[in-house]
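Why this split exists: single-chain examples teach little about how molecules sit against one another. For that reason, every record in the complexes split bundles all components of an assembly together and asks for one structure covering all of them. Below is a record exactly as it appears in the raw files.
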Amino acid sequence: MIQLPGVIKGAVEALTRLPGVGEKTAFRMVMNMTNWKASELISVGSALASLQNLKLCRDCGMFADDSLCSICQTENRKSLKTLCVVENASDLMAIEKSGHFKGVFHILGGVLNPLLGVGPDELKMDELREKIVKREIQEIILAVNPSVEGDATCSYLKSILPETVQVERIGFGVPIGGSLEYLDPMTITKALENRKRF
Amino acid sequence: MIQLPGVIKGAVEALTRLPGVGEKTAFRMVMNMTNWKASELISVGSALASLQNLKLCRDCGMFADDSLCSICQTENRKSLKTLCVVENASDLMAIEKSGHFKGVFHILGGVLNPLLGVGPDELKMDELREKIVKREIQEIILAVNPSVEGDATCSYLKSILPETVQVERIGFGVPIGGSLEYLDPMTITKALENRKRF
């Protein structure tokens, strides 16, 4: 087998660290990049390295350009007394896409997972409690994913939050466009439990 | 839709320049990278930017660490009077993988393609002719892919190369493990033409 230069091996190794990129894909990408101009290579390299400068919103934990993210900078959203708790930035963006929620968010940074050593101290739980008191939040929407860890996290949150706050969890059931035929029994069970008068 | 920081947009845009990476995939990659350490981001960024330092072998045009690639540095390969002409580095590597060819290579850098403005001057054709004379090459294997442009390139090469040199083209036919049932008529035609006494 031919001995390839170190720069090629290094670039292949770097790209395989990306999710979903195996050695063959990385190699194909690098072969393509060998035809690029130096300026293009530099711009891509520095764009990726620049991610180290990514700031997080000091209020909700979302990616931000400044100390506050674009949501927490919006006056009429901040003034609302409803707070939506999510696991991570991707979940926050999914909710934002729906355009239905008008309040502000709080990113936990994950869910409780004793097996992986994630306890309450590893998540932004104290910050949540402080924010609720400071902002006089009246309603909490737990938009935490339905899983054993997610359920446990919601139960724990409910137990530590002030009793004056109304705590709700997003609804579970049949997704729109979904077909009962292909759904798992757990989802069907939830959909039956969560039935509404029609 | 939420306004994302410039560094995220920049990283997504950079990754979409890679072959096979669309905006959704790039975004998923960047979301993953937001959990990386700064040192990891820098090392991946600089590994990609380092590709600009990639050198090409002054003899055959293959990627090289020094002025000569690992193949052209091998004494007993250089002394052989057989030269294999390929379109690009990937094709060269495919031949090297077979382990069957013991001579040296010459990378053309593509095939003739008037529609894309690729004429003889854009390819390493003069270098090939010079090399043949200087090294007293006796046999040329044209390992150019079978396509209209590849065929034209081979015909052109045959016409400009010294008549004393034996010019051959790699064989076309049914690939090993292939099934006649699924092969295109052109390949079957070639396989019939290229039949050998058994």
